[in-house]
Amino acid sequence: MFEVYRAILMRDLTLALRRRSDVFITLFFFVVVVSLFPLGIGPEMDTLRMIAPGVVWVAALLSSMLALERLFTVDFDDGALEQMLLAPQPMFILVLGKVTAHWLITGIPLVLMSPLMGLQYDLSGNALLVLLVSLLLGTPALSLIGAIGAALTLGLRGGGVLVSLLVLPLSIPVLIFGAGAVEASVSGLGEQGHLYMMGAILVLALLFAPLATLAALRISAE
Amino acid sequence: MFEVYRAILMRDLTLALRRRSDVFITLFFFVVVVSLFPLGIGPEMDTLRMIAPGVVWVAALLSSMLALERLFTVDFDDGALEQMLLAPQPMFILVLGKVTAHWLITGIPLVLMSPLMGLQYDLSGNALLVLLVSLLLGTPALSLIGAIGAALTLGLRGGGVLVSLLVLPLSIPVLIFGAGAVEASVSGLGEQGHLYMMGAILVLALLFAPLATLAALRISAE
Amino acid sequence: MLEVVELECMRGDRRLFTGLSFKLEPGELLHLHGRNGSGKTTLMRTVCGLIRPSAGEILWDGEGIWDQGDDFNRDLVYIGHKNGIKDDLNGIENLRICSVLDGVQINESQAWDALEKMGLRGHEDLPARVLSQGQKRRVTLARLLTHDAKLWVLDEPFTALDKAAVEFLQSVIRDHVANGGMVILTTHQEVNLTRGHPKQLQLGWKGEGDV
Amino acid sequence: MLEVVELECMRGDRRLFTGLSFKLEPGELLHLHGRNGSGKTTLMRTVCGLIRPSAGEILWDGEGIWDQGDDFNRDLVYIGHKNGIKDDLNGIENLRICSVLDGVQINESQAWDALEKMGLRGHEDLPARVLSQGQKRRVTLARLLTHDAKLWVLDEPFTALDKAAVEFLQSVIRDHVANGGMVILTTHQEVNLTRGHPKQLQLGWKGEGDV
Amino acid sequence: MSVAEFFDMGGYALYVWGSFGATALLMIAEPIILRSRRRSVLKRVARIIRMKAEDAR
Amino acid sequence: MSSRILNWFKFSSPATFYPLAGRIGVWSMVIAVVLIVVGLYMSFFVAPTDYKQGEGYRIIYVHVPAAWMSMFIYLVMAFWSVLGIIYNTRLSAMMTSALAPTGAMFAFLSLWTGAFWGKPMWGTWWVWDARLTSALILFFLYLGYIALQGAIDDTRRSDRAGALLVLVGVVNIPIIYFSVKWWNTLHQGATIKMSGEASMDPVMLWTMLIMTFGFWAYAIATAMSRVRSIILERERETTWVSELPEVRG
Ligand code: HEM
Ligand SMILES: Nc1ncnc2c1ncn2[C@@H]1O[C@H](COP(=O)(O)OP(=O)(O)OP(=O)(O)O)[C@@H](O)[C@H]1O
Ligand SMILES: Nc1ncnc2c1ncn2[C@@H]1O[C@H](COP(=O)(O)OP(=O)(O)OP(=O)(O)O)[C@@H](O)[C@H]1O
Ligand SMILES: [Mg+2]
Ligand SMILES: [Mg+2]
Fold first, then answer.
1. Are chains E and B touching, using the cut-off of 8 Å on CB pairs and a minimum of 3 such pairs?
2. Which domains occur in chain D, in start order?
3. Nearest C-alpha to atom 13 of ligand 3 is from which residue?
4. Contact (CB, 8 A) for C77 and C144
5. pLDDT tens-digit map of C193-210
6. Which ligand lies nearest the alpha carbon of B43?
7. What is the separation of C-alpha A40 from the centre of its chain, rounded to a whole number of angstroms?
8. Backbone φ and ψ of C18, nearest 5°
9. Contacts of B142 (CB under 8 A, 6+ apart)
10. What is the DSSP string of A95-108?
11. Higher pLDDT, B65 or A213
12. Which domain, by its residues, includes B67?
């Protein structure tokens, strides 16, 4: 079983590396959104520091939503997905493998990049750490939740918007706690509460999202 | 010749309407980006009013970049693009038709929606008007410039990032003048200068971008 | 043994077939016939469990395929209109990932062998993207050589293949049937599969899609 | 008249063919033969001007196709492996937009006629997305009925078609040739195109891709 | 209380009537839309049945 | 007990439910009209003026019922979705999709009227506060469901996909509710909530309740009417539809 998980993971990572550009698209988007704001707003450090948690987290949410469309459509279009559904392997594992790969490709670079982004907004060391941790907890949850939407809209006209429309309400709690944690740390309040909640959301998402995704995939592949 | 332009335009509009939700993709993204920021930042009206031009324009730039990906890939994948390249029609017209349709679908709704978005940020009536006009001049330019990148990405598998990097610097002037015009109007300075510059950019883009796009398409289709 | 009982399939608001029943025993080949759009693909996908039928049952070794989960999948290979290979992976990689999913892990030299048998010598390590139409199909079909499933469901497997490859694939199918395997197959080309005593099934008596 | 002179095509670092020359006069049909991957598709796309050859020339009525712009395109229909129809449009809409691009505007009833001739009666107004493989191909091929181009370049046009449709398409090709048209065609199926006095061209003598 | 006073709503006219008006508008429009939808569905079903009857003949 | 269950299954067949829905629909509409007329009369002529908010407070009589209905309808949709997944009855999916537009309308109305209330009270149309955010998310959930249904043309797929989406969404509702509350503690709330005073004027309370029940009956009526159209559309090939008087007439 672990074998299969590893195989799917490696497959998707290899594919991502082959295309190279895909690895960067989310990261690039994230960096652009975050960095363009100071450009539009102007260089007042106080304003910047104040809006930093919101900006960074909104950017993270959006770039994660962006990348979702690709999660299953490519496999769907070339017929690889139906082969997966027919494989004598627990589909749960396959979904988990694909989502993990997706997170490694799109989420991790973003997490690693975030301190640099935070610096642009003049965040303190502690706030940067909290930002990094909150993204580390939040982005996998976003990927897991997003997978449901991606699976539901597979092959539908206008998949792109639909994904966003379906996934957005589901991911807003992650956004709120993520931004909340950083804000709390910036303003000197305790950020633990928010981080615990994010952990809880992540665990819940890990348990239920792959199941829902699987059900959605079966519906969509018909 | 006008016949063909119309036919391509109608075709792409019909396709967009068929998918119904696709009409809204950029609009939705735009609305979300613009509306999510206050969520992250908090409800202080003063801050909001200050960042409004930047936020709205960055959102416009990003949603326009987002939608670009679809501009040619679908036609490329199902073979319609090679048929267009082989059609005994000036390809310049075809490209222009596709870009026009793209702008009507993604740009216009955004322009029309912008005053509502501006209201959220408590902008004055004049600033709203300037916002609308700047978007009206800016979004077609963004579509035209973006089309070059979209056409190049079709072929260059690994070079996706490079292309985005290529297109972004070209679109940033639009962003700067667009946000600048609104900011100037908010702070009571004259916005005409900025708007004239945007008009000039639009004319330049209209003249040269379709040619560059066409060349890129020929390379990619090989 | 595969048993299809009173199957009915709807597509949109169109009833493609209804009351369809047949049995397939080991060593038998079922050749589906039918005009374009008569529902051959739909039937095959239903038999594989990709589409839920609107009525009727599909039994594998006496048990409904929707109730037994992976057991049925382990005995099944489905090759459809779409190749299901990744354009950015080369032949070897494509074949190996398929085999992991099929639960019959093969090592690299086995993969090279299978591709060579399928006539892809010299193209094994090209990304599938640059392969010709027929070469892509060959990569897909190489799975049949590495897999030990009992039931093969092949939807127009001969498309895009040249004559030599068609010949070879036919012999592969004949061998499988001779060894007690089962095959459901459709093709619009003339084929020579007599050694498998093919059953024939004609879909679409309604005369849809005449020319 | 189409004239190909000393053509050479490279793919990756592979030379597919070199020094290839042939002529095609009105009323002639050229049947390309070759194993999978021997370069038939590449040759056809080169002849259409989608790929720039690495050496050699392609002349249409004595002038290089890269020099004459749309004149050559006006005389050409290319039907490739990909159908080039939009999944979200129905048959009628697909056909009509193709005809505008081809510069031979047809009205709606002509489109209905062409599709009916291609055996799509009752499916004309379904989005192509839900059509079967063969039905999609038929929509694509309906273009041949509405177009008046001289040169048809058909890359495996018979794929996915059932026997009746293959029969019909053959007769369409024969008629075109009989009326002084030119056809370049490839297919791995047995076809009966004798009335067109087909020229035969064999690609890939290097013995690539044996089975 | 005069009519004008009533409509003025103590200075809150825009807000009160804006709310009640929108509510009324939507809650009246919805049944009307539903009714027209029902009509068109009935028409379509009737046409299908007529076509079937003709086919049968 | 078992006969009860049998009955349920009988009514879950579209053919039996269709005429029943017609009757329920008509009666609910009558009740709705009566209650809403009475409610409107009371909200403008009986209920006293609020000492703090003046006449503007009367928005409450549409705002609160609309907000309540928007949440309640979503829960009903979730209920039907569960039924649909467990018993695989055709009717449940039809009920879910019949309820959604009305639910979305009420969600929209609660936002709209809320905004028209917020402007005079808080001086702003919109504030990112807990309640409003969660209402907005609810509205998006409705829109997502409707968009998904619209995008799928295969009815069986749209039924199952819709049910799945509604259930995923319902899991999210408590999360949204609590999370947003928590987040709200961090920024200064401009919220002036009336419900703080438990000692609400009984006339006001009654008016609100009457309006709520009126809206409730209205929702039932529209859902029934919509489900009848959906049944007709989906069952148009069946004989029982072709024998209906309204179809033949
Ligand atoms: C002065 C402004 C407002 C007042 C006095 C007010 C008052 C109320 C009251 C009394 C309730 C019933 C709460 C309960 O029974 O627990 C309620 C519910 C609600 N309101 Fe408002 N509201 C105002 C503005 C808004 C705005 C601007 C919106 C949205 C745009 C909004 C959205 C809602 C929602 C969604 C509910 C239902 C939530 C719940 O009951 O927990 N309200 N409001
Ligand atoms: N949503 C729909 N509405 C109406 N008809 C549909 C819908 N979806 C599919 N169909 C019809 O169902 C049939 C599907 O046939 P299927 O793909 O199984 O054909 P096939 O026998 O495999 O044909 P081919 O030989 O061309 O591959 C087609 O006639 C198609 O038009
Ligand atoms: N980048 C590349 N590197 C190496 N080889 C390549 C590259 N691109 C294409 N090729 C080879 O060029 C050939 C392309 O052949 P083409 O598609 O023209 O074949 P074909 O004769 O149409 O075959 P089929 O009958 O399968 O359609 C294939 O052998 C393919 O492997
Ligand atoms: Mg088929
Ligand atoms: Mg080929």
1. no
2. 2-75+149-202 (3.40.50.300)
3. D37
4. yes
5. 766 567 788 887 544 333
6. 1
7. 25
8. -150, 150
9. B60, B61, B64, B65, B107, B171, B174
10. HHHHHHHHIIIIIH
11. A213
12. 2-221
